[in-house]
Design a protein that fits this description.
Length: 240
């Protein structure tokens, strides 16, 4: 029993230190990977590449320029509430877009202010004739803690939602909807205020986090080495 206690006392702290060092280093490298992803995303956004047809792009990356052929479903629109731009509260106008091959996507046509409308809805109608649109691959706005019931009245048209998932909108409309969301290009007609940008927190934030994790790993390593050397010195003194 005494040997077991001595073993635990002697080796458990160093083993815990090694585990912490491995954890901190892995977190640091994860942050470096996130920084690289953000830099690649920014480069893609600024590259100004020619839009590719969506039908020829099975898995577009975020913010990739695309073109899509189809028609808007003007009667099935969604207003995403509580979107703040320039210190003002407003909506994102999300319009379903049915492609020629029957694929149903959501198109974010931009932002409109909320104040000034009262109980009235802004003019959202859009022609349902066949068209080709240019957009970027995107997604719905997200929050850390999504609401439990993002859509209060699934029967209302347009739907008014607070940070919904694609599945929430699909359930309310009674149709399958692709996970891909198109961000309508600023030069396209039938849109509202659009200024699509990559996430504001760039790669420098992730580099800062990586430095902190590496610093913690080095700190634990220094403490671990100091403790091991101290134990060796104490054992040497006890044997003399």
């Amino acid at each position: 029993m005494r040997d077991l206690k001595q073993f635990v006392t002697s080796w458990l702290p160093p083993l815990a230190g090694i585990v912490l060092i491995a954890l901190f280093v892995s977190l640091a490298f994860w942050q470096l990977e996130r920084a690289a992803e953000k830099e690649a995303l920014a480069e893609l956004f600024e590259a100004g590449t020619t839009p590719r047809p969506l039908a020829e792009t099975p898995q577009p990356v975020l913010f990739q320029p695309l073109t899509a052929n189809g028609r808007y479903l003007s009667d099935e629109q969604v207003l995403i509430d509580n979107i703040i731009r320039g210190g003002r509260v407003g909506f994102y106008v999300i319009t379903p877009f049915e492609t020629r091959n029957g694929r149903l996507l959501l198109v974010n046509r931009g932002w409109i202010p909320k104040e000034g409308y009262g109980e009235e809805r802004p003019a959202l109608a859009v022609g349902m004739e066949p068209r080709t649109i240019t957009a970027r691959a995107g997604r719905l706005p997200r929050v850390a803690l999504p609401p439990e019931s993002p859509i209060s009245d699934p029967e209302a048209r347009p739907l008014v939602a607070v940070f919904p998932e694609t599945g929430d909108i699909a359930a309310a409309l009674g149709r399958d909807i692709d996970e891909l969301v198109l961000l309508l290009a600023p030069d396209q007609p039938d849109g509202f205020w659009r200024d699509w940008r990559p996430p504001a927190r760039g790669s420098s934030t992730h580099y800062g986090y990586a430095f902190q994790w590496f610093a913690l790993a080095v700190t634990v390593l220094v403490i671990l080495v100091w403790q091991v050397r101290k134990r060796i010195r104490d054992e040497q003194r006890s044997t003399t």
